């Protein structure tokens, strides 16, 4: 078995070790990032929805930065939302500052009934900068 090339953001390694998963894995020129939620440093959910979404993006950006990436390197996004019918508009109005300019990454949105006390989770795949194709 190939050894996993794990990426840990600063200050959160204990949280990932306690929950027994890797925040991100580098493989074949890509970075596969585990779902990020609006958790505080102790792992507890941020109770207010807008603050929780911002914190989820902040946590995501910390993982990306630890791998030398930014959201501009993201090629695929999956979001999970508890009760998207009532929360989608609130969540999506917060996205533009994090999302950047077009062309945007691909997106899959999934409505779920439970996220371990959270209302929003985002997972991504990013192309690592050292393997980015040069413009023609």
UniProtKB/TrEMBL annotation:
Cited PANTHER family: 2-IMINOBUTANOATE/2-IMINOPROPANOATE DEAMINASE RIDA, RUTC FAMILY PROTEIN YJGH
Matches recorded under CDD domains: YjgH_like (cd02198)
Pfam families, A to Z: Ribonuc_L-PSP
Protein name in the entry: Uncharacterized protein
A Gene Ontology molecular function term of the record: deaminase activity
SUPFAM superfamilies: YjgF-like (SSF55298)
The species this protein was found in: Ramlibacter tataouinensis (strain ATCC BAA-407 / DSM 14655 / LMG 21543 / TTB310)
GO annotation, cellular component aspect: cytosol
């Amino acid at each position: 078995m190939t050894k996993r090339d794990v990426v840990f953001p600063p200050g959160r390694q204990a949280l990932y070790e306690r929950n027994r998963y890797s925040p991100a894995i580098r493989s074949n020129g890509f970075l596969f990032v585990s779902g990020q939620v609006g958790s505080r440093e102790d792992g507890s959910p941020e109770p207010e929805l807008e603050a929780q979404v911002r914190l989820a993006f902040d946590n995501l950006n910390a993982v990306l930065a630890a791998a030398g990436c930014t959201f501009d390197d993201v090629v695929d996004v999956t979001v999970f939302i508890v009760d998207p019918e009532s929360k989608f508009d609130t969540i999506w109005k917060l996205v533009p500052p994090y999302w950047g300019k077009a062309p945007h990454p691909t997106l899959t949105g999934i409505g779920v009934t439970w996220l371990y006390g959270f209302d929003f989770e985002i997972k991504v795949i990013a192309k690592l900068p050292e393997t980015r194709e040069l413009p023609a």
